## 1
Amino acid sequence: MNRDTFLATARRVIAREADALQALGPALGDNFADAVELILAAKGRVIVSGMGKSGHIARKIAATLASTGTPAHFVHPAEASHGDLGMMAEGDVVLVLSNSGETPELADLIAHTRRFGIPMIGVAGRPNSTLITRADVGLVLPEVPEACETGFVPTTSTTMTLALGDALAVALMEHRSFTPEHFRNFHPGGKLGARLAKVSDLMHGGEAVPLVSATTPMSDTLLMISQKGFGVVGVTAPDGSLAGIVTDGDLRRHMDGLLDHTAGEVMTANPRTIAPNALAEEALALMNGNKITCLFVVDPGDKGKASGILHIHDCLRAGIA
C-alpha cells in the first residue's frame, strides 16, 4: 500500500478541479446574464433535469434555487417520458444538464419544451451538441480534462456544473434582495434554522412575563419572582413602559429592610432589553457579554412596553450556542 501515492492522487484531483473552476469564470459571457433574465421572467418554476451524475447535480441545484427564493424542482428525464412531462407547464423555465449534450434520455424532455414553447437553458461541455443548439440559452462549460487519468469519470465537469448552478442561484438571490430572514423561512430546522431564529420565536409572552408596578411591595414582588421562575421581575412605570428590573443582585444589595421597600425602590433602572425581531443569536451574545441570564423583550414601536422575556436556557434549548 503506497500511502504517498494516495496523497499525490488526491492533490492532483483537487488541483485539476480548482483549475477547472478558474477556467469557468472567464468562460461565462452574455449568455449567463441571458439565463438569469430568462429565469427572472418566468412566472412559474425552474424545472431542473439531468441524467446520471448530471442528475445528482441537478437535484442539488434545484434545492439551492428553491431555498434561495427561486421556486424550483427536479424532474428525472426517464420519468418525464412516462408522465412527468406534466410537471412542466406554461410559465416555467427548464434547466437541462448534460456534459455531452447528447444524453438520449433527455430527448423527450427537450422535444416537449420545444413543442410547447417552454424556455430552456442548456448546460453542456460541447458547443455544437444537440442540447446547446436547441436551447434558448446555452451555457457551455470550458474544455478541461476530467480529474481521473482515464478522462471518463465525471469529476471536473460535474464540479463546474455545480458551481455554475450556485452562480445562477446567488445571482438570482442578490437581484431579489433575498435576506437572512427570507432564508430562515425556508430553513426552520437544524443548526442553520437555530442561528436564524428570532427572539420572538423563543421568548415567553403574555401571562408568563413577570411584571409588577413600581409601587408593588417587595413581599408581592418576591412572590412574583418565585411564581414565574425566571429569577427576575420587570418593573413598569405608570404608562406601562419597562422602567427597571429586580434581580438577585438587587435583592442582596437591599437585604436590610427589604420587605419595607417597593419594587421601584429596589430595581435597577433602564435594564438591557432586546427587540422581538432581533436574532436570538444576538440576544445570546448580549447575555453572555453582560453576564446575565434574562432579557426583557421590548418593541421600540410599542411605547417601551415589555412584550416578552427571553432566558438564556431558551437559546441553548434551541441549539443556539
## 2
Amino acid sequence: MLCGLSGGADSVALILVLKELGYDVAAMHCNFQLRGEESERDEQFVRDFCAKHDITLRTTRFDTRTEAEAHGESIEMAARRLRYEWFELVLEESFSNPASTSPNGGRWRGAICVAHHADDNVETMLLNLIRGAGLHGLTGMEFCNDWGVMRPLLSVTRAEILDYLAAKGETFVTDSSNTDTHYRRNKVRHKLLPLLREMNPSIDRTLTETMFRLQQAEAAILHPEAAEVYRQTQQLLTLGFTTAQIEQMTAAENGAFTTSGNTMLTKHRGQLLWGTIPEPVEPTPIEAQRLPRCEVTNLRDASRAVLDVRALKGRLYVRSVREGDRFTPFGMKGTKLVSDYMTDRHRSRLDKLAALVVCDDNGILWLVGETVDQRAAVNETTTEVLVVKIDLLLSQA
C-alpha cells in the first residue's frame, strides 16, 4: 500500500493500522513548502517516524504557489493536483519497474491509500452542499474512487483515530493551517459543524447516514438492478440498523449477523435476511390424534407429522431447539446435530432460532417442518399412528 503520510494524526494512524494488518506499506510525503520551518519540521518527523517503524519512504517537494499561479488554481486545488499526480506516477513506476520491490522482497501489487476519515466526509458533503451540487456531489467520498485511490479510514471518526494513537503512545504533528478559517473547509470544521452539533448532537451520524442513502439512490438510478438493494437499505435503516451495520453485513461471510432491538439482520447464501428474533418456546404439552394407519394417506406435511404410535414414550410436548440437540433424521443411520441438519438444508440463522421440535421422554420425535426422527417413522409394520399438528410460524426471514 502506497500511503500518503503528512505526519498528522490521520495518516500516522492509517499507515500503522495497515502495517499491523500485515500489508507491505510505503510512505509518500509531499513537502508543499507553504509553511516555512513548519513544513521542514513535518518532513523531518516523517523521516524519523519511518526510520523508527522500518517503513519505506518516498518524498518530494513542490513549489506549490508558483504552480497555483501558473494554472490559475487555488493553493488547495494545486496542492491536491500535485499530490495525486505524484502518487499515480510512483504507483505506475512500481508496477513497471522490474527492480521495484516491496519491503518483503516481492513485487508491488498495491494501491494508493489516503487517510480521509468520517469527519472529513461530513465536511466534504457540507462543502458541496454550500457551493451547490447534484446527487453525486452529496454522496460524499468513496472508499475507493474511479482513480483507484483507497480511503480505508472513511468509516472511522477523528476521535477514534486519536484514541488509537493515544493507546499506542504514538505522536504526530499538527498543521497550523488547519485552524485558519480563511480556508473554506476550516470554516465548516470550526464554525459551521459546532453550530450544527449544538442543534443536533448526532449531526455527524445523521449526515453520514444521509450520504449512505444518497449513494444507494444514485446506484439505483444509474443501475436499475440495484433498485432492490436500495429498497432493502431504506427498510433496514427504518428498522434502526446503522449504515455501518448494513455495510458490514453486506461484506460479511454467510452466517454472520447483527441486531437492532428485537430485529436480526443476517447474511444467508449471499443475501441479506432480516426478521423479528423469535421468542423461545418452553416445553409445552400438546395433543395428538390417534388413528389407524390405513386412514392416513399423506405422511409428509410441513405443519403435520405422522408418527408410529409404538415410538411414543411418556409425555408429548413441543419446544424450541436447544444447543446440542441431536436426532436421527429419517433415512439416516447415525445421529446428527439439529443445527448441522438445518445447515445442510440451507436454513438461515433466523430459521434456526425459530425451529421447533416435538419430543417425548426419549428425545426428539419431529423437527417441525423438516423431518421425523427415524425411530418414529412409519413403516410397513405400523398399524396405528399419531397425527401431530403444529400451527406456528416456522420462519421469520
## 3
Amino acid sequence: MRSLITPLRKEGYTTLKIRHDWKKGTFRMEVLKQWEKDLDFSKYNQEFYVESILTDNVIYLNTTQVWELYRKYGLEDYLEEILDLIRQGRHFGIELYYNEKWNITYMSHQHSRKLGINNRLHATLAGGIRRHSPDEEEKEVIIDGLNLGRGMSFKNVAGHLSFGGCKQTVTMEPLDMENMEIMGFLGFCIDSCRTMTGPDMNFPTEMADVENEHFSMNYTSGPKSPLGETGKPTAYGVYVTMKQAVRFKEGTESLDGKSVMLIGLGAVGWYMGENLLKENVSLKIADLDTKRAAEFVDKHPGRGIEVVPLERAYYEKVDILCPCAIGGVFYDENIPKLQCRYIWGSANNQLRASSQEEEIRISRLLAKRDILFQTEWWHNTAGVICGAQEYLMGKDATYDHLIQVIDDVMPKSTYENLVEAEKLGITPCENVYRKCEQIIYGD
C-alpha cells in the first residue's frame, strides 16, 4: 500500500509535519528524526519531556527536501493527493509520529486552532483518539481523520468551547495497556500536538486512566475520571435538544404520545433509551446485537418496548427516528422510503456524503419530505463538553455542573438554529455550517 510512512521507515525518520495556510493556499512540510529507535517511552514525563533533546543526531528536512524524499520513493503523486485532501477541507494540517519499534503510526488531523490559540491552556485543540488496524488503507484513515477533525471544529463551536478541532488516528495492533512503552509514546504524541483527547473507536476508555496516572493529563473521560465516560451526557444532550425540535415544530417540548424508533444500544444509545422512557413515548428499539436489545427490554419491564429487526428499523412508521449507531445511513435511494417526521440521534455523519456540499444537498431532500433534521454535531456535542469540563476543572468537575452547562447551552443553540434556518429559507444543516464558518474562517 502507498504510505506516508515508507520514506520514514526506510531512512530512520520519526516525524512528518504538514502545515497548510488555507488563505494563501501554501504548504510547509518538515520531516525529522527526533529520537533514536531504542528510546524507552515508558520514561516519558519522568526522565524526559516533549521539549527534551532526545538524540544527538537530530535530522531536519525542509519542504523542498521533503518533496525530494517522497519523489525518491515514487510517492510524490501520493503526497500531492494527501495535500489536496487537506486543501479541500481548509485544514491546518497533519502531524505524524512513527514508532518503528512497535510499528505505530500516530496522526493528528488538525482542522483549526483558531478558537484555542488564546485559551491559556496547554491544549489548543480537542478531538477524540481512535485506533485503526494496520491492514487498513492509509488514505482512507486520513480521509476519516480529516473529516472528523473538521467536524470537531464545528462541535466545539456548538459547545461554546475554546478549542480548535482535530482527530487522532493511531494505526496499530490492539492496545496492551500494560505495555508502558506504548502508553508513554501515546502520551508523548498527544502532548506534542497540544491536544486534549478522549478514547474513541477501538480504544478502551480505561486508557485515559492509565495515561493520567503515568504520562499525560491531556487524556479525559476514563472510568475513574470525575465525570466518567461520555456516553451518558451525550445521550442527555441529544434528548434535551430533541425536545426543542418538537417545540419548534409543534409548540410543545413534551414527547408524550410520540412514537420513537431508537437504533443502536451502545455507549450512547442505551442511555438515550432511558431518557426517552422518562416521557410517555411508544418506544421501538433495534440493535445489531439482538441480545443487547432483549436485555434493554428486560431492564425496563412493563414499558411495552418493541424490538424491531435492524434491517426494518429505518423504515418504521414513527414520529421520531433516533439513530445512535453507524453513520452514512440516509441517502438518495432510501429517503423516499422513510416514514418519520424527525431524524434526531447521536450517530456521527448520518448522511451518506463525502463533502459538506453533498451533505447539504441530502439535507434538502429530507426537508422536501418535511422531515426535520439538524446536522448531528450541533446536538451530540455534550460528550465534548464533558471532556472539556474535566480538562478545565480537574477533580473539581461535578456531574451536576456538567448537566447545568448542557442545559444552558444546547437547547438554546438548537432552537435558535431551527428558527434562524426557517427565517432564512434554508435547512438547519446549511445554517449551522454558515454559522460555524463565520467563526472559524472569518477574520
